Each structure stands twice: as C-alpha cells, then as structure tokens.
Amino acid sequence: MKPGNKLTGLGLLTAISASLCCITPLLALLAGTSGLASAFSWLDPLRPYLIAFTVLVFTFAWYQKLKPQKQIDCNCEKPENAAFIHTKMFLGIVTVFAVLMLTLPLYAHIFYPKKEARTILSDQANIQTIEFKISGMSCSDCEEHINHEVNKLKGIINSTTSYKNGNAIVKFDKTKINIQNIEMAIARTGYSLTGKK
Q1: Which residues contact 186 (CB under 8 A, 6 or more apart)?
Q2: Are 119 and 173 in contact (CB under 8 A)?
Q3: Nearest-angstrom CA–CA distance, 79 and 52
Q4: Which string of b and e fits 161-181 if b means at least 16 CB within 10 Å?
Q5: Which residue among 52, 73, 92, 101 is buried most deeply as judged by most CB within 10 Å?
C-alpha cells in the first residue's frame, strides 16, 4: 500500500473517531438500540486533538499528491494509469467525507424525528416540573436523543435537555405518568442519571 493511501485511511479514521461520540446516538436511534448512545462519550475530550490530527494528515496527503514528480530522462516504459484509489479524485472524495464527519455535530439534529409531546391538559394542579441531572452527554445530538425518548411517553408536556448544564427539565401531567417512567426512558438512552430536583 502506498504511503498516500495509508495517510488517507488514517485521516478518515481520525475524522470518524472525532465525531464518534455524536455518530453513535444517531445510529442508536436509527437502529432502535438507544442504550448504545453514550458508548463513545469518552472520546469527546479528545475531539479537538482528533480534528487537528485529521487536518494535518489530509494536508500532508494533499501535499504528497500535488507536489511535482521528479522527471527521469530515459526511454523507459511509461507508467500505467494509476488505480482509482491512488487518484486525486479518490483523495478528494475521502476529504469531503472526512469534512462531513468532522462537522456532523453541527447538522446531525436534522436526522432526529421531531417527536412533540401531546398532552391534553385538564387541571393545572396536576402539572409538575422536575430537573434530572444527567452525565455522559457531549453534544446537541445527546440532547435530541434524550428529548426524543422522553417525548414518546404519554403525559409529557415539554422536555428540554442541555448537555452543557448536564440536565433535562421535564414538565409532565402527574396523573398520566410518574417520575420513575421518565427516569426509565432517560436510562434507556444509555446516559446516567445522577440526581433530580
């Protein structure tokens, strides 16, 4: 394998690794295996380093691909056409894919189905708001995943999750759902409940 191909593969691997903490909740939601969502949240602190490494690897790969080749003056056979995997086109496609992976946290929310809570209010006295403390969230995809699971429950009025604050604030009708059901829905996403207020 040529060094350029090794660089391309390495760059692609680091690009995917940099966004793995955000890719996993999306894949878990699509596959219906919510518990896997937080499996790669430990990679989140490494994200800036993985992004920098990916940029360096692709910069070097493009330098290698674009630098002028030394011309040897001889009557040798002309080199054969390079395989597609060794072309600039292939490197360009892989570079675009890597950029899409690196920027996934910016647009991944569009893949989450909007599940709005549908509760008909009968009595304001039955409305309760509770804050759940949650650990393991690393991006807005984690928020979307938790909101999606909680809003599936009957009796939920509103759910707002913040990975920055490490919490979910849930407003619900206590005659239609209890706190334990909401806790179980959050736990199914794979994130850890650390408390409630």
Answers
A1: 132, 134, 146, 149, 150, 168, 193
A2: yes
A3: 35
A4: bebeebbbebebbeebbeeee
A5: 101
Distance CA 36, CA 67 (A): 44
- What tokens does 48 get? 């800036």
Tokens of 153: 């429950």
Confidence of residue 179 (pLDDT cuts 50, 70, 90): very high
Q: What is the mean pLDDT of the chain?
A: 79
Task: Delineate the domains of the chain, giving CATH numbers in brackets.
Answer: 3-69+82-109 (no CATH), 112-196 (3.30.70.100)
3-state SS class at 76: coil
Using CA atoms, how far apart are residues 24 and 17, in angstroms rounded to an integer? 11
State the pLDDT confidence band at 58, using cuts at 50, 70 and 90. confident
Calpha distance 16→56 (Å, rounded) = 15
